[in-house]
Amino acid sequence: MRRYILTGAPGAGKTAILRRLEQDGYAVVEEAATDVIALRQAEGEAEPWTRPSFIEEVLALQLRRRERAAALPGGGPQVHDRSPVCTYALARFLGHPVPPALSTALDRLRAGRGYEEEVFFVENLGFVAPTGARRITFEESLRFERVHRDAYARFGHTCLPVPAGPLPERAAAVRARLAAAR
Q1: How do the domains of the chain map onto residue ranges?
Q2: Within 10 Å of residue 7's Cβ, how many Cβ atoms?
Q3: How much of the chain, in percent, has pLDDT values that exceed 70?
Q4: pLDDT, averaged across the chain
Q5: CATH superfamily of 3-181
Q6: Collapsing DSSP states into helix, strand and coil, what is residue 8?
Q7: 84-131: per-residue pLDDT in tens?
Q8: Residue 103: in which H helix or E strand, if any?
Q9: Which residues fall within 8 angstroms of residue 142, CB to CB, at 6 or more apart?
Q10: Three-state SS for 60?
Q11: What distance in Å separates the CA atoms of residue 170 and residue 31, rounded to the nearest whole number?
């Protein structure tokens, strides 16, 4: 099974592209950080990302979702909203240590067990719309974007840019690459 990563800075439009791909019949694996944040905020914690254990929680949910997706029937490509490399970038961006479980996951990726080498990198839209889970300025998102690109390069991935533009064009660009890889 071929697993592709769709990544980029917060607010870049990944979720909209994923929803479009899902509507087009592609298997999509959801990202974990937003859901961990939403759960912890619902439990009364205003900024769960400030705890170093946040990285471990994100990774654990991310790996569970990947395992569930691997068990699904069908051999078509899967599009993953983020990967352990993104979790590594998040740890670096937030100034948290890289926990042992994340180091292990990254070692597995380096050994070639994981995702396709080419990563769809959704470029920023020129602004960030804040949400309860996304409390980042546009300037911070640009720095986070650089951290992400550097992390993917460090772990041997090539970022395929998905330029800013209308959703239909962005989704079509990703679909075209997925179709060419089949």
Answers
A1: 3-181
A2: 26
A3: 99
A4: 92
A5: P-loop containing nucleotide triphosphate hydrolases (3.40.50.300)
A6: strand
A7: 999 999 999 999 999 999 999 999 888 877 899 999 999 999 999 877
A8: helix 100-110
A9: 9, 124
A10: helix
A11: 19
Strands ordered across the beta sheet of 78-81: 27-29, 78-81, 3-8, 118-122, 158-162
Give the chain's radius of gyration (CA, Å): 16
Pairing between β-strand 158-162 and β-strand 78-81 as defined by DSSP bridges: unpaired
Cβ contacts of residue 166 below 8 Å, gap of 6+? none
- Please give, one letter per residue, the 3-state secondary structure of the chain: CCEEEEEECCCCCHHHHHHHHHHCCCEEECCCHHHHHHHHHHCCCCCHHHCCHHHHHHHHHHHHHHHHHHCCCCCCCEEEECCHHHHHHHHHHHCCCCCHHHHHHHHHHHCCCCCCCEEEEECCCCCCCCCCCCCCCHHHHHHHHHHHHHHHHHCCCEEEEECCCCHHHHHHHHHHHHHHHC
Contact predicate 119/162, CB 8 Å? no
146 three-class SS:
helix
The reported pTM is 0.92
| Amino acid symbol at 2 | R
80: which strand partners? 5, 29
Q: 2-11, pLDDT tens digit by residue?
A: 899 999 998 8
Closest CA to 41 of 128, 155, 132, 156: 132
